[in-house]
């Protein structure tokens, strides 16, 4: 894990945060982070409904060993606040998830969703403009037909590069409850969207119809015992997907068995240790994120205190369990009172599935090396993250004497939390969202 203590940071702050640096605006809080399939682009969504895309600069000829930095490529408003008059319900513009589609041509495509509506966006470049129209002048106004005395062949002239984002599809009115996940299928023709009680399957070409493939809503809502918390397609098998629940269980479903996947193919659950049973057991066992490994052999899940790795061939218990912040076990009562116990942390794999990363409080994020079983805690903060600086590992002291470089568990800031992270698909570059700041760290360049 030596290299993981040596990341170099770049920090991005939204424009409104720069204008009022004393306190961050609610709309600027980053709510999702996602690299595209090549890692050349990085998209973030925020609570204000905006999507900001960063592009990696090409390596400089003068400094061929220096890796490209990420700079703002495009910014656009993806979702607007809405109001459901039938239910007297305000629908937030907050972007819950972003998922990229593999690039097929010069343009880029991504899915973004708020609580109710999924949109397919096309992001394209334009560096030429047509001139010499016959019926219009250069400003676009119609010309007087009597003044047209000759035919012209329009030509393309160079212009400043312009990046345009246009919504190509809007998938709406299919979810009664809040969408928590979207996942693109490996056939690249379909994707699924999941809310608290249902999962829908969409075709990219059809916006007015979706297929309900999972429905756990009971006939009597008073009998409701669990909700869907996350869902994802298998990276290689287009018929297989998993979804997790608030009860700490994972179900693997096969769409070949029936149209409605109300019966799972596999059921992953770890039996609870009766000696650890407490009032908070059910809350902290709720799974906030589920991710297939790139190989498709493993599933990673994140609950409040741990990250677990499951083998698809072994359902009764995880093959690996990593304690993220076990020192908070004694603080669960106060975390319940301030609602932090309901925070939903995400988890990510590195490109080779050998290291996993997830967030914690005090702007800490954790990395676990599956081969060496070593782990490290790093901090994303503006104070210790000057560009090209080396990040130092952090340690939390639970009790007794505190060393100079340790921080006491009682002095952790629970308002600073790393909920959203992303890992470059092939390189050691990570993106960490800390409230309204985006940090990009990369392996140290010698």
TrEMBL record:
User: Which keywords accompany this UniProt record?
Assistant: Repeat, WD repeat
Q: What domain of life does the native source organism fall in? A: Eukaryota
Q: What name goes with this protein? A: Serine/threonine-protein phosphatase 2A 55 kDa regulatory subunit B
GO cellular component terms listed in the entry, alphabetical order: protein phosphatase type 2A complex
Keyword Repeat part of the UniProt annotation: yes
Q: Molecular function terms in GO for this entry?
A: protein phosphatase regulator activity
Similarity field:
Belongs to the phosphatase 2A regulatory subunit B family.
Transmembrane parts of this sequence: none
